[in-house]
Amino acid sequence: MGALAMVLGSVLLMVGNGGSPAAAASSSITLYSGQHVQTTQNLVAAFEKKTGITVNVRYDDEDTFVAQIVTEGKNSPADVFFTENSPPLEELASKGLLSPIDPSTLAKTPARFNSPDGEWVGISARVSVLVYNTSLVKASQLPTSAMDLAEPKWKGKIALAGAETDFQPIVTSVARTHGDKAALTWLKALKANAGSHIYPDNETVVDEVNRGQVAMGIINQYYWYRARAEVGASNMHSKIAYFAPHDVGYVIDVSGAGILKSSTHQAAAQKFVAFLNSAQGQTIIAHSDSFEYPIASGVTRTGETPFSDLQPNAITIPELGTGAEAIKLLQEAQLL
Q1: Residue 290, number of CB atoms within 10 A of its CB
Q2: Do the beta carbons of residue 256 and residue 91 sit within 8 Å?
Q3: pTM recorded for the entire structure
Q4: Tens digits of per-residue pLDDT, 127-160?
Q5: Alpha helices in 73-108 (DSSP H)
Q6: What distance in Å separates the CA atoms of residue 286 and residue 301, rounded to the nearest whole number?
Q7: Across the strands, what pairs with 99?
Q8: Are the C-beta atoms of 61 and 34 separated by less than 8 Å?
Q9: Are 97 and 91 in contact (CB under 8 A)?
Q10: What DSSP designation does 7 have?
Q11: Given phi > 0 = left and psi -120 to 50 = alpha, else beta, which region is 303?
Q12: Are 172 and 320 in contact (CB under 8 A)?
């Protein structure tokens, strides 16, 4: 009777998890998330409820995860890597560490926001802007190009989070447009103008500008909207402004997800990534406090400048590359 009970128990376990040992092993996946916690938590909770698949999430900076995944190699426990920016995914793709994304999943996101080789998929986006204190500088006085921030008249008036991975696409945009030498000169002048207003993250940049400690800063737009939601509109003493259409500082940055080639839960990982750019996943992003733009399944966000109205520099995902060019320049400018 004991042996029969064990057999029946095994059969019931297999049926409950899809009818096979492989399905049972895929009832949970591990997610390395460099994305914002609130965005990831909402998506994971909805996915778990819909599929019954448990998602074990580890949070860290995306550049830290890239180094960790490369070190872990085939032994990485990660199944999916979810990022704020495309270069970390491109870095892993360049090393042959990602599996192809299902074509039906890729098709839900416009091709220009996906991996050129189909190895990761675009999930959401944000755009670089100026945040400025309305008491310290008038909108009419703001520079219209990011290159103008290197001018001496802005000395002591600029806040910068040069070590943020969000800043790297802007550096790459400048370098691809004007060349590495000009980009390095620009970064050094930007650093000099920022002086003591170089901060560890964009949240601090927004806070310092809003409190009147510095006139303006370069951020991605959603940091300002998140700050407003946290402190209330009446406590906001700052606004955001866009650079001139197609300026080098006007950059759309894509968040994406990829599946590790080493994952032993490929089917479940594909389901999770497909959920992220499904109508349900994109609607969660559209209504979340992350204030990022959904870019897939035809879902749009209200309350911000419409994504379709943005006029960024026409730099492509392949041109943004792995971020290595930007990192080298940032290191030479001693901003990293």
Answers
A1: 24
A2: no
A3: 0.88
A4: 999 999 999 999 999 999 999 999 999 999 999 9
A5: 86-94, 103-106
A6: 5
A7: 259
A8: yes
A9: no
A10: H
A11: left
A12: yes
Helix (H) / strand (E) containing 276: helix 266-276
Residue 128, CA distances (Å) to 18, 94, 113, 167 in order:
45, 26, 16, 9
- Which of 77, 120, 78 lies closest to 255 in space, CA to CA? 120
Residues in contact with 51: Cβ distance below 8 Å, sequence separation at least 6, in sequence order: 271, 275
Tokens of 209: 């500008």
CB atoms within 10 A of CB 28: 15
State the pLDDT at residue 26: 53
Q: Are 198 and 335 in contact (CB under 8 A)?
A: yes
Which residue is it, tokens 């390095």?
184
Q: For residue 62, give both structure tokens.
A: 């995306």
**Overall residue count recorded for the chain in this entry:** 336
Give the separation between CA 28 and CA 31, rounded to whole angstroms. 10
Q: Which residues pair with 120 in a beta bridge?
A: 258
For residue 99, the one-letter residue type is S
